[in-house]
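Sanity check

After download, print the first record. It should look like this:
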Amino acid sequence: MSRAIFLDRDGVVTEDLGFVHKVEDFKLVKNAVEGLKLLKNFKLIFITNQSGIGRGYFKFEDFLDYNNRVLEELRKYNIKIEKTYVCPHAPDDNCECRKPKTKMIDDAAREFGIDLSKSFMIGDKKIDVEMGHNAGCKSILVLTGKGMNEKKNSKADYITKNLIDAAEWILK
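Expected structure tokens:
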């Protein structure tokens, strides 16, 4: 079975400007590429809530265009994201895929043969940490994105300033 790093995209790998979906707003978080390169022996998978779609702020096609731009940029650094799992629903939709529910991670585990007990969820929000724990992964809260506001009540296995430090902790 494989090991994986599940990553919240916005605020961890890309700058979170709030309902980010415009290709022209794309910007990588400082040190994200370096951190992802350290994790090359893991399957890298995006797990992202995109409630802006469900709320009607942007279309699913806008999400795809933006996400494809992110993947294209990461490929320039030989970083492969195996797949992006997305919840396009609004919070009130009570869907099965919205974080902190585990459907997206469970689907990835089945599709890629992932051992969740040897995998990690990295995010900048409490719901990312909860999702990881709910799925049986170790959870890391990074203080990029919304992380600084979320650390007070976080039950993360590790809290760190960025993706490089998260990767170094995983590799210890």
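If your output differs, re-run the checksum step. Summary of this record's structure: The CA atoms of residues 43 and 62 lie 25 Å apart.
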